[in-house]
Amino acid sequence: MNVRTVPTTPIEGQRPGTSGLRKKTAVFMEPGYLENFVQSVFDAVGGLDGKSLTVGGDGRYFNKRAIQTILAMAAANGAARVLVGRDGLLSTPAASAVIRARRTEGGLILSASHNPAGKTGDFGIKYNIPAGGPAPESVTEAIYRRSMEIDEYRILDCEDVDLSTVATLRMGGMAVEILDPVAIHAGLMRTLFDFDAIRALFASGFSMRFDAMHAVTGPYARAILEDELGASPGTVVNGEPLPDFGGGHPDPNPVHARGLVDLMMSPEAPDFAAASDGDGDRNMILGRGTYVAPSDSLAVLAANAVLAPGYAGGLAGIARSMPTSRAADRVARKLGIDAFETPTGWKFFGTLLDAGLATLCGEESAGTGSNHVREKDGLWAVLFWLNILARRRDGVKEILAAHWAEYGRDYYTRHDYESVDKDAAEALMADLRRRIPELPGRPAGALTIAAADDFSYRDPVDGSTADAQGVRMVFEENARAVFRLSGTGTDGATLRVYLERYEEGSGELALDPQEVLAGVAAAATEIAGIHARLGRDRPDVRT
Ligand code: G1P
Ligand code: ZN
């Protein structure tokens, strides 16, 4: 087999965003596009000679083809071994678990998360470091710099490898080890949660629905929930991963998982429901008649963590992204542990987890996880909830109500303005930033701005800094609004407006968040001039 060195030229725009490089699938399929980026990763990490790598993806269109290209390039770059999930599948948390358990020199994860897939959809690729987490900015910047100077890539001329069965095959001098995509991750879950208690819960007639949204978590959920824990067959719906996710938008939120939410609000609702996203790192949690906001989910998991064997010794600290509500901070305060506030994106949690400063992490965007891997983990969150429900023998609604009564409730919503004009969105943010000094004391709608800043972060472990991470406004009325632009979209820009208002435990705790937050939304919309600047009179998505 022949190693081919292919001359190439830099391609603009290969700078990874919030979570790796994401582009339209058609862009990734252009000749040399994937190859340039992959070679840039290999070069930026000091070459692959004699190293091992983990590779897998969420099964979306182009996943299998891209994996064959990556394998041939890894072989040509001298890799000793690549671990790859059967059929090219590995959920993002499972890939992180494999990197850590098998100590590979990091991994490549092929996914655009919850973004729609298919020829006209999105594709993505992300490099994770040997600790198992997304590459920090120092590494993604090195990859980007390399992509701007690259002049050749190496690839082996060879046949495709058959990835359909668990086996170890060879590609040139490299071993290709095809893994059961579920086994390592499931093994880890067994060490963290009380599987006996969850089995007893299901045996007592507890009913559940898990919507895998035709994305990667179907095989994981079936193996763990139905086969191992005894949930009745049919608990997992939309469990076959499909290259186009069945034409859906696998983002587990009340908009894109509408059917599941409707079921849970109906008389036919099972006791518990959950969904995960394209690559299995996000989660949505529902009880009968109840939607659990992700920020609340993090707080409830933290407050009940000792019920799970893996966390019985207590938590070191809790980290949340800045736009996530402060509900988890209240739990941290009560537990007497540290609360960390990081920029948006899982990559900022890595140093805190590695240093043992934080045990649980979460984001308002349906991401929750812990130090068991270095990614957020959808099924982990579902199992954590099941563990708590099994031990408390109480419903989701009751657990949430008791939590709010104890800590108060951070009413929360996020309003997204999607695919808006990029220049207009950037001008809106620039203008907000420029006006920050004059905002405190100013009225906004019916509220008054108490403080405003542009969030900047200094990592307490490695001292690295990240500026301009979102404009925060705190109002005198116990409320907050945060504005930032998405770093994961591929179409124009998306403005995210995060809104919250705190209500004491003795106050009204069961109201509709959209109603409670209408005044904060109006204040935020007015102060940023959203309607005029973006030409939109309402958000596309309210989570
Ligand atoms: C979004 C979420 C963020 C999450 C990321 C990857 O990023 O807001 O919390 O970490 O997806 O799943 P954004 O598009 O806002 O940059
Ligand atoms: Zn995801």
Give an account of the 3D structure.
The protein has 543 residues and is of the alpha/beta class. It is built from 18 helices and 27 strands. It has a 7-stranded mixed β-sheet, with helices on both faces. A 7-stranded antiparallel β-sheet has the order 20-21-24-25-26-19-27. The chain has a 5-stranded mixed β-sheet with strand order 11-10-12-13-14, with helices on both faces. A hairpin with a 6-residue loop joins strand 12 (272-276) and strand 13 (283-287). Helix 10 (294-303) packs parallel to helix 11. It is globular. The model has no long low-confidence stretch (mean pLDDT 96). Zinc ion (ZN) is lined by residues 92, 113-114, 277-279, 281-282.
